[in-house]
Amino acid sequence: MAVVITSHRRYFLVAAIVSALLAFYCASGALQAAMLFTGVKALRNWSLWTSLALVFASATIACACAFLPVRAPGTWASRLFAALSLFLGVASAWSVATYEAAADRCLDSGGSFNYVEAACDHFASQPYISFLARNGLGLTTTILFVSVAVWFIHLSRRTAKSGDRVRSNMALHTDALARARELDH
């Protein structure tokens, strides 16, 4: 069976390739940030490059799914992926919330929070790092996984509705056959 590549699908293929290359580039930026930088600069660069790598990897998967001739997953698969994505989104949000709660407890006790090491320092003043710079990756993963969960919930409902239509059409067909048999007898 030959797959016909239309111009519409060709755009998705090109977008998937470009997104994959950008994801690899951003992943190398994240590794560079982890290896070459220290302190605040490492935290900011790691958060930025890792968030971008995650976004481009997701775009690669979305474009590849749009390119490939795959059928929609069944209701159970959509619900499973939705639950998994929702769990990962909540876990990511929980990570951000606990990090921020630790910083808040430290500041309430009169200390200075070291955002790079996630530790309270009662002796020296530590530099402030903006919320987005220190939690960019956590926010990105939360938004991404919750969005994927919503999409899979939408797919499961759409698949369930189309299954109901098929079942109702089959019931109508069965009723029509039963009536036709009654008329024959």
Which features would summarize this protein structure in a list?
single chain, 185 residues, mainly alpha, two-stranded antiparallel ribbon, 2 strands
Explained architecture:
It is a single chain. The protein is mostly helical. Helices cover 79% and strands 3% of the residues. The protein has helices spanning 7-36, 39-67, 75-108, 131-184; strands at residues 112-114, 119-121. A hairpin with a 4-residue loop joins strand 1 and strand 2 (119-121). The radius of gyration is 25 Å and the shape is elongated.
Strand order of the largest sheet: 1-2
Low-pLDDT stretches are 164-169
**Strand tally:** 2
Q: Give the quaternary arrangement of the chains.
A: single chain
Order of helices and strands: HHHEEH
Task: Give the averaged pLDDT, no decimals.
Answer: 81
- Portion of residues within helices: over 70%
Terminal CA distance reads 47 Å
Radius of gyration: 25 Å
Q: How much of the sequence is in beta strands?
A: under 5%
Main sheet, how many strands, which sense, barrel? 2 strands, antiparallel
**Broad shape:** elongated
Helix tally equals: 4
Q: Which class do the helix and strand fractions yield?
A: mainly alpha
Task: Show the helix and strand layout.
Elements (H helix, E strand, L loop, with lengths): L6 H30 L2 H29 L7 H34 L3 E3 L4 E3 L9 H54 L1
Antiparallel strand pairs: 1-2
Helix pairs in contact: 1-2, 2-4, 3-4
